[in-house]
Fold this protein.
Amino acid sequence: MKELKALVQQFHRNIDEYKSGGYDEENTKIDYIDRFFAFLGWDVNNNQGYSEDYREVVREDKVIIKGRPKSPDYSFRIGKERLFFVEAKKPSVNIYDDIKPAFQVRRYGYSAGLPISILTDFEEFAIYDTTIPPKENDKASTARIFYCKYDEYENNWDFLFNTISKDAVLKGKFKQFTKKGKKKKGTQSVDKELLKMIENWREMLAKNIALRNMNIDIYQLNEAVQKIIDRIIFLRMAEDRNTERYATLAEIIKNDTIYHHLARYFNSANKKYNSGLFKPIQWLDNLSIDDKVFKTIIADLYYPNPYEFSVIPIEILGHIYEQFLGKTIRLTKGHRAVIEEKPEVRKAGGVYYTPKYIVDYIVQNTVGRKLGVRTQDSGDSTSASRPLPPASVAKLKILDPACGSGSFLVGAYKYLLEYHLKYWTQSRNKKKGLKEGHLYLIGKDSYRLTTKTKRSILLNNIYGVDIDTQAVEVTKLSLLLTMMEGEIAEAGTELFFKGRKEALLPDLSANIKCGNSLIASDFYTGKDLELFDSGEMKNINAFDWDVEFKEIMDEGGFDAVIGNPPYVEHKKLRNFSNYFATKYLSYAGTADLYIYFIEKGIKVLKKRGYMSFVISNKFMKTEYGKKIRTFLNDKTILEVIDFTKYHIFDALVSSCILLVENIQPTDKHYIRFSDIDKKIKSYGLTNFINKYGLKVKQSSLKPNYWIFKDQNLLNIKEKMETNTIKINEIDGINIYRGITTGFNPAFIINDDIKKMIISKDNDSNLIIHPLIQGRNIKRWVINKSNNYIINTNYDLNIPADYPIIFQYLQKYAEKLKIRSDQGRNWWNLRACKYYHEFEREEKIVWGLTSDRWAFAYDNEKYYLPSNGYLLTSKTFNIKYLLGVINSNLMKFYFSFIGIMTAGGAYTLKHGTIKQLPIKTIDFSNKAEKAQHDKMVTLVEQMQEAQKAVHDTAGKSESEIKFAKQRCDLLDKQIDALVYELYDLTEEEIKIVEGK
């Protein structure tokens, strides 16, 4: 490349002068670094004229405080997504060996959660892996993944162009390059490391406050710890935004009685910000807390820690807090503080943060529609309307009724900020925006919204509710920090400090409220209030929408309702069942909590408003979802995005995005449906939907279950339902769930324990039965299990008739008593009316969840635990039924009525399996009888072939190979026979098999 070669030669001619120290950093950037990245395709000087928020290369003007640079020199972006930082130095700096600049650039990149960052003085060029936490004394070479000198640029140009050029980013090569290091030893994301640090603060504070303040209760303790941490984080980040003097907190810890000085600082901050965050609370200010706690906490916030707070995104802080809120502080009897997971989090297996791209999509398709921003053509009335002026936008009310750490509200707020910035910076509005104080100038033709405007947007538009007081405080903190983003530039202007009539920050107490979104104070109607102490009332936390948001509800409700409502099982809701039954049309005894949030979300929604949640997709097909499906069919469903095949959370739950407009649908309205799979990785969510989205007529949705399928697929389903009978309608066929023992460790034993018991009392063998778990059930056959169940039913006198078993169970007696019903003998297995069904000569068995469509034949009289099912028949040949059920065609039918877990595992509940349509046989018809007999024969052959595959002892590799081939051939023959039974054509078979 001629231009690069000429630039390198120019540098070489003057290198002695440059390295003497007189040639400064700014000239290095202008003369060489800017031009170098322009060669890589980056619009370094914003020649395209993009707004400040969308320019490709953001130059950070360094603010020097006590000799400390506050920002990296360049931020490279596509859209608003940061990709990497570049830190520039003058040529006299030794990049190869000097540890300080290396630590600096790694600290920036690590804090911002970026995969790589670059350090260069043009003479030298180094790329660092910034997923590895930096340490002050690391060598300059630590985490360095590429290095070259200026005279090596030409030889390395292909590598550089294919990794960090704009073209490489757009073609996905940059992402491929940065992904290679994700699983390297020593890498750890900044959010996880910051979470460890903040959790350590919580533990130190909680234990010390509990120790030094014996009168504090559990609620005050949780509040104190949360508020102190929130205040310190806010003030530290304010330092990096130049609204607080840098290192103020660091200076405070040089004093004795640190908390006394901090309390005074908090009170002065309250006068300055007046946001409610620093509102004086006398008991909080009067706490006794040891100095050593604050010395540790505040020291963690300054150099040489690995974190640079000026570049940490609010989304990362939200992710940290989402995890932080999953735990709570408990006081022991001795008034000692203990940190533990909240019960609902423990049950769910952790906290699952909503990915940013989901938040952005939901905001765009709700808030964006209300703003008149053109969205995807989903048939709604406002997708192409004219954008609203700010005066009209100010009237819009956006709600998250279960706001958690505030990620959706932060997303909505940022979207509104961008909208207003774009509006005011348009040429016809620019002068007016400057004149009225909506904008201020930060550079050549670059503007930002003033704090006053950002403040009014936050107060006018953003609302949230959460039952957790800590979550409410975190949401407020996240929103306030979002408002302060980018304040460094304005903080240096007279506009920011002088002539300010209002406080810097708004008080959000009227916007973000604590309460139970689903339960109003009428919960207590007709109840004796003496039965509810203050602790119970705090847990219920009744919330009256018409009181708390009176003006909004009087105006018809909110314009947009968004969020990720909690996934709480119906078992946890038993205390509120009667209330939900009388107050919610969608009530079902087994409904999870998110069902009621859907109904409530629409009830607080203004007519023609939009609601969009990311929720479990089970409601579309389960029995408990029938009422909410009926409720939603009276609203205009704009879009359903199903994530069964694609993990958006680490949890097993399958999720979907539901988008609804609060108006009656027309007969001709179509729903946009997308079944997201792994292709999203290359297409992105919006592009995937544009390419693969399907339109389904809303009037075609039935209350029994929602089906979003192409008409050709629906035709095959209807054909399968013709001249067939559902399993639950066949006389003599029954489906049973496995046994719930009440206490598995006692009643489920292994082979060694069985032998021990029988060696002492052979008669015990009569009530010890073989047991298989779901994992033992394969397609067609059962893998032998080493487990047994002791069946101590109510008809037996266990202590007298089976003394050895009674002695064995006694060691579990205390635990069993805790779990036993009142008046129940602790040694009795839980009652079950169908024990005899497990001991039938033959049955079909399967597991509740399976990664394969897998049903097996059992003639060994196996028992099953609660995660297994069995089917018995007095009329149909079990092997004929097994052949039909195990077929590819029945798996195809399941896709219409069944539920998959995240990642594509089958949920094979009896309520679903009983809906499978079975082709009956007229035995007087020779052709049909022949088909039946052929199926039985093929299944028997398959069982033998499968046994040969699973029993590999003494078999050669070739024997196993041929056994597998035989199984594959028999599978195809069984599938072909089932297609024949259901009279499918060749074209229909191709559709079923996805060909």
